[in-house]
UniProtKB/TrEMBL annotation:
Gene3D superfamilies named in the record: Vaccinia Virus protein VP39
Keywords: Methyltransferase, Transferase
Lineage: Bacteria, Bacillati, Actinomycetota, Actinomycetes, Kitasatosporales
Pfam families: Methyltransf_11
Matching CDD domains: AdoMet_MTases
Domain Methyltransferase type: residue ranges: 31-120
One GO MF term attached to the UniProt entry: S-adenosylmethionine-dependent methyltransferase activity
Protein name as annotated: Putative methyltransferase
Alphabetized InterPro entries for the sequence: Diverse_substrate_MTase, Methyltransf_11, SAM-dependent_MTases_sf
Amino acid sequence: MTAKNGRRWNHNIHYHHRILRAVPDGARHALDVGCGEGMLARELRRTVPHVTGIDLHEPSIDQARAHPGDIDYVLGDFLTHPFEPASFEVIASVATLHHMDAATGLARMRDLLRPGGVLAVVGLARNTPRDLPYVLAGVAVGTAHRAVKGQWQHPSPIVWPPPVTYRQMRALAAEVLPGARYRRHALFRYSLVWHKPA
């Protein structure tokens, strides 16, 4: 199902603005980890001259490459692809971290980020019984959004349930990325924004 105005919407797209607002002025190189069919990469390209998207899912990369533009799409494993250390001013990731070991993924992103750069993540985590108020709120808010906007189903593989809980993710981010700003959101997502010390 698509939105009445023709624009795509889902829980991930809803939080793209959190990534885009975090892009620092003057950033020239951005990496979209788990880029899927490239929607966020294309949004990043509006302000960042050199954007690379990487994903393991070949059909999604094929869809991304079908769009016109000068984004470099890589079919490969973000954890092992031979990127140069400290080569990006922006690293973004949406709904990807739960597809890998989260600590390893965050550390890899940290190492690929240039001093002074920004890491921005929107992710999924697992609810626990203590999270019931968030779950109920998310169902209500999501239902309202879908009634107005519809819902676009992305072509990428789904991992469910996420292996890490929200509380574990917050603690992990604090350990791997000291000073990271963590926020939990209504639509079953969290966000992390971290500025690497210059």
